[in-house]
Design a protein that fits this description.
With about 240 residues, the protein is α/β, with parallel strands linked by helices. The chain is built from nine helices and ten strands.
Length: about 240
């Protein structure tokens, strides 16, 4: 069901053969994990400010996004405390079977894969929640998160994880000063996050993807195109 694919930066991803989609961009899985998630969510900055980063990771997959967050903490002495949701335990087993990772990500991937089977070690605590993310996020602790990585499969194959109801629940878990990042730049996703009370901005260009979406409570974000900002404002106010 899960086919390994070497991406352009030398790191691995896995393709779900049933859904016909890979877990990461083929232009570079490790690049995507760092530039789409760890960096724009200010993982290192939060670590330096607070000494601990609390992360909600939706779509564990190979654990690469978690590994990028852990790498961002290198040298800070801070601790990463992550809750991660994954529907299919088979993808975790398939990821742990992969070898010959590039040197810049191999140590972080190894630490995350150990944590996913219960051996977190110093500076890292990972709690894996297997099952439907809609149920898991409802049952998640009331405490909020400094960063949210929203990385499920696309709305075409997993529409339930892009619904306004689900995104509102996810937004409710974001702490003041926290940042959510996702690869989706769709208007309905941005509208749902804005209606949930978050400021919405433009995520960085990564690989072949022109931009994603950032959302925050209290952190200035790169602005959306003015016409899109006006459209969002009209929809939030209930205008046609």
């Amino acid at each position: 069901m899960w086919t390994p694919i070497r991406t352009a930066d030398g790191s691995w991803t896995l393709r779900n053969d049933e859904l016909g989609q890979a877990c990461h961009s083929l232009s570079g899985a490790w690049e995507q994990a760092r530039l789409r998630y760890a960096e724009p969510c200010r993982v290192r900055e939060v670590a330096l400010e607070r000494g601990v980063v609390r992360l909600l990771d939706i779509g564990t997959g190979l654990g690469l996004n978690l590994a990028a967050a852990l790498a961002a903490l290198d040298g800070t002495g801070a601790r990463l405390e992550a809750v991660t949701f994954e529907r299919d335990a088979e993808v975790l087993a398939s990821a742990r079977a992969l070898v010959d990772w590039p040197s810049d990500c191999a140590p972080w991937v190894a630490r995350v894969h150990a944590a996913l089977v219960g051996d977190s070690g110093l500076g890292l605590k990972v709690h894996v929640e297997l099952g439907d993310a809609r149920e898991r996020v409802t049952a998640a602790p009331d405490a909020s998160f400094d960063a949210v990585f929203l990385d499920p499969f696309s709305p075409q194959v997993a529409p339930e994880l892009w619904s306004e109801t689900f995104l509102s629940l996810v937004a409710s878990k974001l702490a003041s000063g926290g940042v959510l990042s996702t690869y989706s730049a769709s208007f309905p996703v941005r509208l749902a996050l804005a209606r949930a009370g978050l400021a919405v901005g433009r995520g960085p260009r990564v690989g072949t993807k022109a931009e994603g979406t950032l959302a925050s409570r209290g952190v200035p974000l790169p602005g959306l195109e003015p016409r899109l900002e006006r459209r969002l404002a009209r929809r939030i106010q209930g205008a046609s």
